[in-house]
Design goal:
The chain is of the alpha+beta class. It has one domain. It has seven helices and six strands; from the N terminus they run βββααβαββαααα. A three-stranded antiparallel β-sheet has the order 1-2-3, with helices on one face. A three-stranded antiparallel β-sheet has the order 4-6-5. Strand 1 and strand 2 form a beta hairpin. It is globular, with a radius of gyration of 18 Å.
């Protein structure tokens, strides 16, 4: 998701040893990821900058409706797993409206062949969905190991052990909010949500602002 307009979109600045990625929204800096590798081996259509925009925390022009765009990314096969949240506001009939939206979202995702789990959390309805895939189907995990080792995040043997423990897990096993970093190492959460590997590396380096 790039643009020629300097102050809108994802701008990557190449440095001597590292890249810096900055997200601009119509002239406003949303976030900056520093200490990124100059090369990332891992490639997957399900891992992309648009998924990072959909993590919440800011409203990017054209992507304000996170639920809509997460659904579209999932149906297009451009996101491994996603969660859509519908607020259960009981004023002016909004509770029924949002419940209908949640049911419609779940139905469309199931029709597209995704695995779907819905749950009520007090004032919110969660619709979680994922591809019928294993973690190892997202992309070449050997390349992923190289990226994290070369970035100085992991010892190769340690990451190999973690990947061996997780590569055969079905993505549906992470539904029920088990995709969160509370349950998994950061690299795994980033991968199954489809966030760029270089952004997760910045998080490991605590180089995000």
């Amino acid at each position: 998701m790039t643009t020629k307009t300097k102050k809108h979109g994802v701008i990557v600045t190449v440095g001597g040893k590292h890249n810096t990625k900055t997200v601009w929204n119509r002239g406003y800096r949303m976030i900056t990821y520093r200490r990124q590798p100059r090369r990332i081996r891992f490639k997957s259509k399900m891992v992309n900058d648009k998924n990072q925009h959909l993590c919440g925390g800011w409203g990017f022009a054209g992507l304000e409706d996170n639920n809509l765009w997460i659904e579209r990314q999932l149906i297009a096969g451009r996101k491994p797993l996603g969660i859509m949240c519908f607020w259960a506001d009981d004023s002016a009939g909004l509770e029924r409206m949002n419940a209908d939206k949640a049911r419609g979202c779940a139905a469309r995702l199931r029709s597209a062949g995704l695995v779907v789990k819905t749950s009520n959390r007090g004032d919110m309805i969660d619709v979680e969905a994922c591809q019928m895939l294993r973690v190892g189907d997202i992309g070449d995990l050997g390349d992923l190991i190289c990226d994290y080792v070369e970035a100085g995040i992991y010892d190769g043997d340690d990451l190999c052990r973690e990947i061996n423990l997780n590569s055969d897990k079905m993505l549906k096993s992470f539904l029920g909010r088990r995709w969160d970093t509370e349950h998994n190492p950061l690299w795994l959460t980033g991968l199954i949500l489809g966030y760029p590997v270089e952004n997760t590396i910045s998080c490991y380096h605590e180089a995000v602002s």
